[in-house]
Amino acid sequence: MTDGPQTLDPQDWEALRRQGHRMLDDMIEHMRGLRTEPVWRAPPGATRRRFDAPLPQGPQALEDVHTQFLADIAPYSSGNAHPGFMGWVQGGGTPVGMLAEMLSAGLNANVGGRDHMAIEVERQIVRWMARLYRFPEAATGLFLTGSSMANFCAVLIARTRALGAAVRERGLRADDGPLIAYTSTAAHGCIRRGMDMAGLGAQALRQAPVDARHRVDVAALERLIKADRAAGRRPFLLVGTAGTVDVGAIDDLATLADLAAAEDLHFHVDGAFGALAVLSPRLAGRLAGIERADSIAFDFHKWAQVPYDAGFLLVRDPELHRATFASEAAYLRRADSGLAGGDWWPCDLGPDLSRGFRALKTWFTLKTYGLDALGGVVDRCCDLAQALATCIEALDELELLAPVELNVVCFRYRDPDADRVNAAIVEDLHRQGRVAPSLTTLDGKTAIRAAIVNHRTERADIEALITGVIAAGRRLGDRGEPAADLAAA
Known about the structure:
This protein is α/β, with parallel strands linked by helices. It has a domain at 110-356: Aspartate Aminotransferase, domain 2, CATH 3.40.640. Helices cover 40% and strands 12% of the residues. It contains 14 helices and eleven strands. It has helices at 13-32, 45-49, 62-73, 95-107, 117-132, 147-163, 167-170, 189-197, 218-230, 253-263, 318-325, 358-394, 418-432, 459-476; strands spanning 140-144, 179-184, 205-208, 234-241, 266-270, 295-299, 311-315, 398-400, 408-413, 438-442, 445-451. Helix 8 (189-197) links the parallel strand 2 and strand 3. Helix 6 packs across helix 11 (318-325) and helix 12 (358-394) packs across helix 14 (459-476). The radius of gyration is 25 Å and the shape is globular. 44% of the residues are buried.
């Protein structure tokens, strides 16, 4: 037996308590002071080099490790908690979610199965989501890392629906016929990856064009399905999008539901952020048809502001869901009572046996804030997006590149060398640290993309974005106008 402590618990619990309070206070101050800090700052070379240190062999005082965290990690985050972060669809988190994550870590629950209350918390959220989306009471659901994993699981569920659970044992066979899935060119890339990871091949995904509002062209989908059936292929999955990644468009979900029913396809909705527009009474009607989906993927860590990560998959048919993932193992033997009891084990519904207690921070968020407040965040984000679009259309130097359906605004600074200049503008804004949009490409044009998801974002942040883009554009582009003239714009 080696010398040293026989447990990793502290010898002085009161000293740990004092240090823990300091750590908690520091994070509360960090969240309270977000607006006074840059959205993003590049980590200095010296800071990066400190993380080339060798693996620690002996102990180091917790307060010293915390000191390094404050100096070398906290100031150099990705910035998505900051009100000026508009680059990608990422929620800002909340103090409540942070505290709930601490409680979850303290319990250290493995929510793969067995009979304990963490399972019941997750089950309650499944029931809540089934009611929210008007699914059957028996519907099943599961927390996952995010919508990318949830969409992948939906591909597997659709594969089981098409080929039966036996495909899990025998694998794909030539006589199954090529399974073909359908979505739009605006769909998230994880759909293509899901086809790849499911062994179906990315080439088995058909992507129909979109209309002027970036919604899938349903007539084009019908033609693709008809052509594949005529060629002896086997359509099995239709994926609609509620909130496209580039512009936030919502497909005509009701019409897609009709098409899926007529063609006997599994109808899945990738609603990574847009599905939570259902929280807004003003916007919920735009999701008409989502209640007819066979499965829905979305992220609580986006518009619901739950800290990362908290993705979710909701499935209409519980037997199909279980048949896709459940497996027998001696070490997972169930019992009528005791810790191995319980009739709902999440490991039967997804790929993970070891699972963190993601449901707790979501449960705290939903109970503490309530749906009305969260729906209000959705409304405010969309209102700010419309205000941004209005400003863009009023300025000759800027050009709106896509309709604003929800909370994503794509635009650019007008310049003869617009692609280069707009890319340079975004890099410049990131370095300045006041606001942080991102880039995308629409119809071959480089676009500045502002995704307004953070509950902390205000009108002042929208104005800072406009001011920053024009000032940087004048400085970096061919107009040669001084930034001091901006007030007259």
